[in-house]
Amino acid sequence: MKNVVAKLHLHQNGGLVFLITLLICTLGLGISVYLTGVHYSSLPLVCSNSGIVNCSNVVGSGYGVILGSGIPTSAAGIIWFLILIVIALTRFKKPAKKIIEDIQLLWSVIGLFIVIGLIYLEIVRVGAICIWCSSVHVLVLILFFISLITNPRVKPLIKH
């Protein structure tokens, strides 16, 4: 791992952006793994089970699995964060291809649209919020903004 980090393209704030991206992806990956583990085990969720914040109602609802498959939505989160880690590693290697920056932005947009849909399902359909899920939603939103403001095609639009 040390060797990989040493080879990364760390110009200007690129290194800091890369590290923040990896940290956020690791947090999101950890939460997704936790929620997936809870789904497949008999462990209780560490979360409120009453009122508007009710993780059990959210993850236990029909929307807590992918299209009724029995596969938890959080498993898709694991895949999403792992792919974004690979994209970030590819993006910040020297020399980075410009298409990778666009792929990262596109992947973040996809994640953002999915999160918007999940928030709708939580609030409108289930009538409860899962604090773990909301944490992942915030992380995806932050990663979207990072991808947006660091994309060279978007930077000129932001400066004006």
Q: Describe it for me?
A:
The protein has 160 residues and is mainly alpha-helical. It has one domain: VKOR domain (de novo design (two linked rop proteins), Up-down Bundle). 68% of the residues lie in helices and 0% in strands. It is built from seven helices and no strands. The protein is elongated.
- Uncertain runs are 1-12
Give the topology string: H per helix, E per strand.
HHHHHHH
Total number of helices: 7
Q: Main β-sheet, in a few words?
A: none
The gross shape turns out to be: elongated
Radius of gyration, in Å, reads 17 Å
Kindly estimate the percentage of residues that lie in beta strands according to DSSP: under 5%
Q: Please tally the β strands and state the result.
A: 0
Question: How would you briefly describe this protein structure?
Answer:
By secondary structure, this protein is an all-alpha fold. It contains 7 helices and no strands.
Q: What's the arrangement of secondary structure elements?
A:
Layout: H1 2-6, H2 14-39, H3 55-59, H4 73-91, H5 98-126, H6 131-150, H7 155-159
Helix pairs in contact: 2-4, 2-6, 4-5, 5-6
Sum up the structure in keywords.
single chain, 160 residues, mainly alpha, de novo design (two linked rop proteins), 7 helices, elongated
